[in-house]
Design brief:
212 residues, mainly alpha, 9 helices
């Protein structure tokens, strides 16, 4: 009985150590991508930068494309964690939707290195099919959430009923990526507050319900 219990405890300890190692390797890989780009990342360097052997990253992630896919998941996960910590509404109508859009802009500029790493990985999806599947799934999840908020706002008669929620959600995602991509390239040349406010005002105007 005691032997079985000890084996279980040791198994849990090993699982915990693996989760910690994977998290540290992901953070290290994220930092390398942010500093030097996707093409400069290697499994060996990610393992060493995390404080482990050169072989451990390969053991856990298998190959570079799998690691990059995990980095993309990690980037989105950290954003969601920050979203939750700021108590930004994630459901209910027009104002929560606009707050979510504003949060994306305001939060992203606080983490330029993380933002750069995210763009590096998502752009790499155009060249590496295995990453494309992960990035496409993450994109679809974000679009689906925007679309659901739009549907809720339409049901509350805060957004015009004739609009296609999915099409509008795709436009939001594309606009935000474009805005932050331009800012990341030349932050001193873009007044991000003015762009954010203009974009939100434009959405309000374009979504305004038709008066009967």
């Amino acid at each position: 009985m005691q032997t079985a219990k000890r084996k279980t405890e040791l198994g849990r300890s090993h699982a915990e150590r693996r989760r910690e190692a994977e998290a540290r390797i992901l953070e290290a890989a994220f930092g390398i991508v942010a500093e030097r780009g996707v093409d400069q990342l290697t499994l060996a360097e990610a393992g060493e930068a995390a404080g482990y052997s050169r072989a451990l990253a390969a053991h856990y992630f298998g190959n570079l494309e799998s690691l990059l896919g995990a980095v993309a998941e990690y980037a989105v996960g950290t954003y969601r964690d920050r979203l939750a910590s700021k108590a930004v509404p994630r459901s209910g109508g027009l104002e929560p939707l606009l707050s979510l859009i504003a949060f994306f802009i305001d939060d992203s500029r606080l983490w330029p290195k993380r933002l750069k790493a995210f763009y590096e990985v998502t752009n790499a999806a155009l060249r590496w099919p295995s990453i494309a599947a992960v990035v496409a799934r993450l994109n679809q999840a974000g679009i689906a959430h925007y679309a659901e908020l739009i549907r809720t706002a339409q049901a509350q008669e805060e957004i015009r009923a004739g609009l296609d929620p999915v099409a509008e959600a795709v436009l939001i995602a594309a606009s935000l990526r474009g805005i932050m991509g331009q800012w990341l390239t030349a932050p001193d040349s873009i007044d991000l507050d003015a762009v954010r406010d203009a974009y939100l005002a434009g959405l309000r105007r374009s979504w305004e319900p038709t008066k009967s």
